[in-house]
Design goal:
- By secondary structure, this protein is α+β, with helices and mostly antiparallel strands.
- The chain has a single domain, classed as Methenyltetrahydromethanopterin Cyclohydrolase, Chain A, domain 2 (2-Layer Sandwich), CATH 3.30.1030.10.
- The chain is about 35% helix and about 20% strand.
- The protein is built from 13 helices and 12 strands.
- The strands form 2 sheets. The chain has a 6-stranded mixed β-sheet, with helices on both faces. The chain has a 6-stranded mixed β-sheet with strand order 3-4-9-10-11-12.
- Strand 5 and strand 6 form a beta hairpin.
- The longest helix has 15 residues.
- It is globular.
């Protein structure tokens, strides 16, 4: 039974929906310039930029796999006062499902000489993160789909461990992989503007169930020379160039209070390039100020009262320094 036959996996839960997107990419792999490896009793692995070239459209497809089909991702012209190039937009009417239950890179996957941050619907199948205790969304799935930010193709052992954690057979696992310093990898990370806003609000104790819809943009940086430099550029894109609008319900007072806390300027580390901060904190994300990880600008539109609350500011000078140097 071929693991890539989309007639076997009609859209349903997060993993079913993501698997349908993966299967479309498999059948369109030549045009998307992605690679694919599979065996009848092993996982399907789609290479979006390790050994295959990938590209912009491959990056859009990869980002939508991360969202499990609950959002659309597009390439747009960037704000010319910010960056004379492209931007990536993301839109969803199911933001908690799309961004927190699926897209958020909350699963650290490691093994012998292997490390990757895991995103996508497989997180809901594994349900390993404490996050799910508060937002819900764990699912029992017949298939599991994940996106790995890595420069190394996962081994049979890594795939077997992921499948075990998801409580599926390894033949029903699909992994899409791309390094940060690739076209597809850069696109899918910059497509996390909304996700960073939601995660920041979650950390601040905001009730995410109030959020009905979301739209975000961030400038798309040039592909960096290596993954470390790419981590800097893609984070700067959101920290200093990301703009997110959330349509919410409820009282105005709480929105007025939380909006200034929801942006990157709320952090004492705001104003320094991410690469500089990363080096300062010994290349350890967990030593960094968690308040930093958020968009430059957040706008909260109250569907119940018609009022809007905005905070933050764009930093074009930092975008230029980050993207050009």
């Amino acid at each position: 039974m071929p693991p890539f036959d989309d007639t076997l996996h009609p859209p349903g839960g997060l993993n079913d929906r993501a698997r349908a997107l993966v299967d479309e990419c498999y059948y369109d792999r030549q045009r998307l310039r992605i690679g694919a490896t599979f065996t009848l009793d092993g996982p399907l692995i789609l290479d979006f930029g390790i050994n295959a070239p990938g590209g912009l459209e491959a990056g859009l497809r990869l980002a939508e796999i991360c969202l499990s089909g609950h959002g659309s991702v597009k390439v747009l012209p960037a704000d010319r006062t910010l960056w004379n190039g492209a931007a990536i937009s993301v839109m969803t009417d199911n933001p908690v499902v799309a961004c927190m239950q699926s897209q958020y890179a909350g699963w650290k996957i490691s093994g012998d000489k292997f490390f990757a941050m895991g995103s996508g619907a497989m997180r809901a199948a594994a349900g390993k993160e404490e996050l799910f205790e508060q937002i819900g969304g764990r699912e029992t799935a017949e298939v599991a789909v994940g996106v790995l930010e890595t420069r190394t193709v996962p081994s049979e052992e890594i795939c077997a461990n992921v499948a075990k954690d998801c409580r599926i057979e390894v033949a029903e696992l699909a992994l899409a992989v791309a390094p940060t310093a690739s076209q597809a990898g850069t696109v899918q990370i910059v497509a996390r503007s909304v996700e960073t806003a939601l995660h920041k609000l979650f950390e601040l104790g905001f009730d995410l169930s109030r959020i009905e819809s979301a739209f975000g943009t961030a400038p798309l940086p040039p592909v960096a020379k290596n993954d470390l430099a790419a981590i800097g550029r893609t984070n700067d894109a959101i920290l200093y160039g990301g703009e997110v609008t959330l349509w919410v319900r409820g009282d105005d007072d709480s929105l007025a209070e939380i909006a200034p806390k929801a942006v990157s300027a709320a952090s004492s580390d705001h104003g320094a390039l991410f690469a500089e901060l990363f080096k300062r904190y010994d290349h350890d994300f967990y030593k960094m100020d968690p308040l930093l990880f958020s968009p430059a600008v957040v706008q909260l539109c109250n569907l119940d009262t018609g009022r809007t609350f905005q905070a933050g500011r764009l930093m074009p000078e930092l975008i230029q320094r980050s993207f050009v140097n």
